Amino acid sequence: MDWTRLETDLVHQDNDRRIQALHRLAEELSHAEEVAEPEQLAQLVRQSLKSNNSHVSNAALACLPSLFPLLVPADFDATRSSTSTVNSLAHTLKSVFTLLLPLDKLGDAKTATRELARESVISAGKASLRLGVAAGTGASKDKEGPWQLVERGVQEYGFQSKNAKAREQALHFLAAIRCPAPESSLPLPPLRPFTPLLLPLLSDSDSTVRSLALHTCIAVFTHPSVSSAAKADLKKAMAKMEVSKRVQEQILTAVLGGSTPAMERSPSQGSLTSSGARSESSAPATSDTAPPTRMTRSRAAAVAQSSSSTRQPPSLLSSLPSAAFPPDTANVHTPSSAELLPVYIASERDLLAEFEAMKSGFEGKETEQNWTVRDRSIARIRGMLLGGVAKGELRGVFAQCVREAQDGIIKVSSSLRTTLAISALTLMSELAHGLPADLFEPLFDGFLSHCLSVAGQTKKIVAAASQNTVTTLLQHSTYHHRTLQLILLTLAERTASARQFAAQHVLTVIRCYARPSKSAIEHTGGLADLETALQKGLADANPQVRETSRTAFWEFERVWPDRAALIAASVDAAARKLLDKVRPAGDAPKLDSPVEARPSASTATGQAGGSKKPSVREMMIAARRQKAAAEKEEQAEAEQAQTPERPRRVLSTLTPELSPSRPALSPARSFPGPSILRTPTRPPVSPSFRSANNLAHGTPNRSSMRVAHSSAVSEPVDEALRDQAMQAEQAAQRLLEIAQDEEEAFLPSARDDAVARTPQLNRTLPTAAMQTPANPAVRRLARPQAVLQDSPDPRDGSGAGPSRGSWWVQRTEALAPPPPFAPDSPEKQAEIDGLLTSLRDLSIDATSLRKLSSLAKERPVRENEDEGVRRADPPTPSKTNGRDVGEGDKITTNEFWQGDRRFDKVYEGVKALLLRTDAPEAGMTRDAALLLLKDLVENQSPCFTGSEADLFDLLFKLREDPSRSSVAATEAIAHSFTSRLEPLYGLGALTPSLSAYLSSASTTSASDALARSFALGLRLMGGFFEQLPGAVLEDVLPQSADLLKRALNDAKSADLRRAAIMALVSAQVALDPSASGQDGKLAELIGGLEPDQQNLLAYYVAKRRP
Length: 1106
Hints:
Elements lengths: L6 H4 L4 H17 L6 H12 L4 H14 L15 H18 L10 H21 L14 H14 L4 H15 L16 H4 L8 H15 L6 H13 L4 H11 L39 H10 L43 H15 L8 H16 L8 H10 L1 H8 L4 H17 L2 H17 L6 H16 L5 H11 L4 H18 L4 H6 L2 H13 L4 H17 L1 H9 L3 H9 L19 H6 L9 H27 L44 H11 L3 H12 L6 H26 L4 H9 L18 H6 L24 H8 L12 H15 L5 H13 L3 E2 L6 E2 L21 H6 L3 H14 L7 H17 L8 H11 L5 H15 L4 H19 L5 H21 L2 H7 L4 H8 L5 H18 L9 H6 L4 H14 L2
Antiparallel strand pairs: 1-2
C-alpha cells in the first residue's frame, strides 16, 4: 500500500482535512495486504493520535486495528523464517507499538474511545503472537519482545489500573486473546502470568468488573486448550488468594464439573431432616449417566424393585421395621450442620493431596479434638462424589484412595455421635451408588461386614441407618456367597432387631440376585443357605421376622418352586395358613403340601350336616398308621447311618407332623437330619459354635414336640373344644420353643448327641415340657455375662475383652464346611499331594485351604507323656469318613505329618501365602489361610517345637496389617499358641524373637505398624508373666526390661504404652498379689520407673485386686 499521497493531508493544519485523510487511510488499510515504511507512517499517525481534538484523535485511533496486522506478512511462518527476519519484524513491531499503542485510552470516559482502544490493543496482541511469544527477546533483562511489551502494558494500564473501565477492557482483552474462535490458528499466549492478575478482580469493588471477571475466568479456563495442571493451579491460587467460597464453587463447578455456574447444594454431612429423607440435590453425582460397567447393577436393582426408587440413593431411614426404629422421626433430635458443597478435583496430584491431608484425622481413636476433623473429611469425600469425581477420568485413583481410607471411614461410622456416624454411612451408600461396579467391589466386603455387625446396636437410629446402607450395598453389587454367609450369621443373633434386619436382607438378596445369579447361587451352596435362612426366619420367635420371611418365601418360590415346596412341608398347619395369606395376587395355585390344616368348628359343623366325633376304631387305625410310619422312618435312618457314601445335605426340619387327622408322608418325603451322623467321640462343641450349627442344620426338637403332642390326644372330644385347646397349646408350645432356643446353646453336648440319635417320630415330651415355661426374661437376667465378651468393639477392629479375636474364630468356624476328603486311599493321598503342590505354588484357593484346615482337625498331634513321642488319638469313624478302621488307618498322625515333610510344606506354604507382597490375597483366601494357621497351631502344636521364634516373627509381621479381620485373627492365633506353651519356655522364645523383629522391622515398617506388633508381643509377655511363680519371675524379668522401658517411653503410640503398663501389672500380680505396686520391687527389677509411670501402675494394680 502506498500511503505517501496522503502524507500532506495527514499533517495539514486544518483538522477537517486531517480527519478526511485519516478516514481514507483507515479504509485503504482495511483492504491492503501490506504497508510500506510502517515506522514513518506511525510517526504521522501519532501526531493525530495525540491531538487535543477528540475527533482527530478518534479518527487516528480507528486506523490502528487495521494497521497492526499489516506489520506481519500474511504468509509469515515463524517455524520456517530465519532468525534475522524474525528479529527485524520484531524490531518494527516494537517501534510501532511504542509510538501508537493506545493503552492510556483504555479507561477513557467515552465508550466509543474505549472500544476502539481495546480493539487496537487486541489487534496488536494478535500480531505479536503471530510473530511468536519469544520473538525479539534476548538474554538482557531489559530486552523484551513485542508480546512482552503488550503484556506489560495491559498489566499496568489495565488489570492494575485504578480506573474500573480500564480493568474492564483488560478483561475483554484476555478473553479475546485466550479464547479464539475454533477455526482460528492463532497461537495462544501463556496463561500463568494472567492468573494472579485475573483472580483479584473476582473481589473487585466494582460490580461490573466482578461479574465480567467471573465470566472471563470461566470462559478462559473452560477452553479446550487449558490443561488439567492449569486448572489445578487455578484451584490452588483461588484458595491461596482467599477468593470467596461462593465464587470458588461457581468457577469450579463450570471448570471441573462441566456444568453451568449456578448449582444447587445438598444437605451436609449426613444430617437427617425431620422427615428422615435425604435431599435430592445430590442427584447429579448419582444420576443415570453412569459408565457402561454399571449395566449389571441396574439389572439387579430392577429385579429388586420395580419402582423408580432404584434409580436414586435410598433414604437411610426408609422401610425400617417399626420395632427397630421410632415411629415418629420428627422426635429424634438431629443437630444442624453446614451445607455440603461440591468438591472439584483438577488432577491426580490434587486428589492424592486431598486424601493425604485426611490421614492424620482418621488415625487413633475418636477424641474431642479430632472428631470435627473426621466430620470434615467425610463431608469432603462426599463433596468429591457430588463434584463428579466418580464419573470422570480420575475415578480409578479416587477408588484407590477411598480403599486406603476405608478403615477410617468405618471408624467414623462407629462413632457415638449420631450425626457423624450417619454421615459416614451415607458416604458408603453414595460410594456404592456412584462408583462403577468393578471399582466398588474391593470396598464392598469391608463395608458390608461392618454394617451387619452393628445391626443390634442399642442406638436405633444408627442401627437402622446402617442396615439401609446394607440394602444399598446389596442393590449395587454382584452376588458373592460370602455375602449370604454374613447375613446368615446376623440371622443367628439373639437381638430381635438384628434378626429383623437380617430377614429383610434375605428378602433383598432374593430379589436382587435370584434371577440374574441363579446359576452362581446353585453352584456355590447359596441355595442351601437360603433354605436355611427361610426356615429359620419362618420359625423365629419374633413376629416381624416371620412376616418378612413369609414375603421372602414367596419371592424364593418364584425362582425355585420345588425347593419352596419342601420348605412349606416343614412348617406346621398354623404357620402354613399364615404363609398362604401373604401369597401375592396372581401367583400359581397353592403348593401341594402333605400337611393339611385341621378343619375349624364351623367347617366341621357344616360338613355332613353336623359335627361328628371320631370313633374308637378310627383312632385305632390312625395310631397303627402312625406306628408303621415311625418304623419305616427308623429303618431309613438306620440305613442312612450305615451307608459309607458321602451324606447329602438335607434339612432336619422337613420331617412332617403326624396326627390322626393328618395323613403321613410317604417314605420318599422323609429326610433324616444331619445330626444322626454325629461322631460319638467328637469333642464337646462350645456354645458359640453350637449356635452356628443350629443355624446351619435346624433344630429337631420342634417337630418332635408337635408329633408327641398330637399322639398324646387320645380321647374323643368335641371339635369346637378341641380347636380351642389346640390354639392354647400352640401358644404354650411357642413359648416353650423360645425358652428351649435360649437354653440350647448351654446344654451338654452328650445330651445333644443322645437326642440327635433318637428317632424323631418316637420322641415324647417330658412331663415338665407341658407345664407353663419360665419367663425367658428372668432367665436372661441370670445368664453369665460371658456371652457378651466376644462381641467386637465398635471403636476397635481387634475385638474387646481378654479373648481378643474370638469373634473372628466364631465367624470362620460357622461357615459351611468344605467338601470332605475321600476315604483313605491312593486317591485321597493324591488329592492331599495336589493341595500341597498348589499351596507351594501359591495358586491355592479358599476352598482348598479350608480342606487343609479340615485335614489338620482330622489328624491332630498330641503329646504322649508316658512314651515321650507324639502319636494320634485312636482312629474314629469321623476320621475315616464312616468306614470301619482298617490296617491302613493305624498309622499315627505324627508319622503322617512328618512323612514327606507334610507339616513343613503346609506351614511354609501358608507362611509364604500370608507374607506375599506382589499380589495380596483377596479377603476370603486370606481368611482361609489365617484359619489354616490357627488350626495348625491348635491341632499340630507339638510340630512347632523348635520353630516358636519363627512363628512369633510371622505373627508380628501379620499384626502390621491394620484391617479388622487380620487384627482379630492374629490376636486369636497368638493367644491360642501361647496358651499351649510352657510359660518359662515360651517367654524365653518370645523375648528374643520380639527384639529381633523390632531391630529388623524398624527400617522397613511404618511406626504405627511397628507399634501394633510391639503391643501384641507385650500382651503375650504379660500372659507369660502371670503364669510364672514369683521367684522365677524375679530371675527372668530383667531380661525383658529393655523392651518394657522402650514401650513405656514411646511418645507416639498410646496403645503401646498401655500394653507395657498392663504387662507390668501382670508381673506385679505374679510377684506379690497383695502389693500396691509402689513398693519399688518391680521398678528395681526393670531398672527404674518415672513417678507418673509408677502411679499409673499402682492404679491398674488396685483395679486388678479383687
